[in-house]
Amino acid sequence: MISEHATRFAPATEKVDILLVDDRAEDLMVMTTILEGPLYNIVTARSASEALKRLLEQDFAVILVDVLMPVMDGFELAAMIKRRERSCDTPLIFLTAAGSDVTKIYQGYALGAVDYLPKPVDPDVVRAKVAIFAELFRRARRLEAQGRALQEAERRERELQITELKLAAERRYTNLAEAIPQIVWTAGVKGDLQYANRRFNEYTGMDLEAARGDGWLAVVHPEDAPECLIGWREAVDRGSVYEGEFRLRRASDGAYRWHISRAVPERTGDGEIVAWLGTHTDCEDFKQAIHARDEFLSIASHELRTPLTALKLRLQALLYAKGLDEKLEKKLESATRQTQRLERLIDNLLDISRITTGHLDLEREDIELAELAHDVVERLREEASAAGSQIQFEATSPAGGRWDRLRIEQVVTNLLSNALKYGEGKPIVVRVSAENGSAEICVRDRGMGIADEDRERIFDQFERAANRRVPGGLGMGLYITRQIVEAHHGKITVESKTGEGSTFRVQLPR
């Protein structure tokens, strides 16, 4: 294989270029006559400057230079030739009538000459010496050709190996996609569907050719398709992860069932998106269970509120009756506090139901946040005293805005109650401030703190920090708080360190 390439690139009969440099036309004619033939291309130059121009245009197997030339002699030309990287290894043979001058000979060899021939030249000697350097040049060309051929063969071998690895990876990916029970699909850079696994065809009854591009939208519920397409196109334009929910038609019975769809961009090493990989997961049964749970919570909350209200009124009537025994009065106060706690739990259940069904409505009005927060602090001072904590309230500036009064009260109450619960009886600071078009509520305790792994989880539904020293709860307060804050287009964050307490910050646009 290499010999074929070498033969093609540098055949044995290849002509090579010879440069003759002499200011005398008759001498150039003599040298040309001696060397002309099928093995050489003779190039002549009448001056050093013309010779340099020829060297810029092509490479030569050997250069024969007359030493005695006007303006720039052969030695100066040789020095310039040797300074150029491209021609520094080209053999130089000096020609001169001053062949007996030993100093000149030494000067020529010092400049890199390979030989020194006196004029008039012996034709056979010239042909023999030039033939040696010409053959060396041809051999170098053959070696270069063989090297290029070897590199080309190695490149093709690497490309073949890479192609085979890519095909093997694609086969493994396809086999995996066909084996899992979820719908798996891929899309091109612009978001057009290119592949869907067998499960897609089995579930929807649509074959791949019909689904390509935006064809898959035909099996999406008509009410969901526009929003689904908008969300998908926005994710593709931004190059961000896509997440959405919509209903897909099931071919077996024509029913539309809810699916969670998620797609991530596949990127090259430099971040360029080359494709999208996505899944559809049937979540209908889960949504039905959630709906049943929410419906139960709503009904149970309403049904519990009626007897609780009656019980609360009875306890209050007894508590305000005249002539109560001191022990009985304390028991009634304790029972009243428990009914209030139960009432808050029922309210939380109702809020969960409203949030999950999208019915958390806001009734905005002009509010001074500092006054609202101060009222909540004063209302909970008795509870703080029972927990062994002192509450410090600070308001650094007026903080007016348009918010839902009852919901913002609920936010402050939940955060302060949480601080009393986990603050271990240490001081608590509530601070209200405002700047740059937003107001901030900050509640800081110095209690047990929150572990790093729990910091985000505590805002989820029915989640609470794991600590056996603290009485249990339903884990709804912080979830409801975040939903209320986000409904106001605000943001809630927490900073905490285990053993050093927690700081909750709520920012509300004014």
Brief write-up:
With 510 residues, the chain is an alpha/beta fold. It is built from 15 helices and 17 strands.
What does this structure look like?
The strands form 4 sheets. Strands 2-1-3-4-5 form a 5-stranded parallel beta sheet, sandwiched between helices. Helix 3 packs parallel to helix 4, helix 10 packs antiparallel against helix 11 and helix 14 runs antiparallel to helix 15. The longest helix is centred in the first third of the chain and has 57 residues. The protein has 510 residues and is of the alpha/beta class. The protein contains 15 helices and 17 strands. The protein has 4 domains: 146 residues, Rossmann fold (3-Layer(aba) Sandwich); 103 residues, Beta-Lactamase (2-Layer Sandwich); 70 residues, Signal transduction histidine kinase, dimerisation/phosphotransfer (DHp) domain (Helix Hairpins, Orthogonal Bundle); 146 residues, Histidine kinase-like ATPase, C-terminal domain (Heat Shock Protein 90).
Mean pLDDT figure: 84
The gross shape turns out to be elongated
How much strand content do the residues show? Answer: 15-25%
The biggest sheet amounts to:
5 strands, parallel
Query: Total strand count, please?
Result: 17
Low-confidence stretches: 1-12
Number of helices: 15
User: What oligomeric state do the depicted chains represent?
Assistant: single chain
Instruction: State the name of the first-level CATH class of the largest domain.
Output: Alpha Beta
Structural class: alpha/beta
Strand arrangement across the biggest beta sheet = 2-1-3-4-5
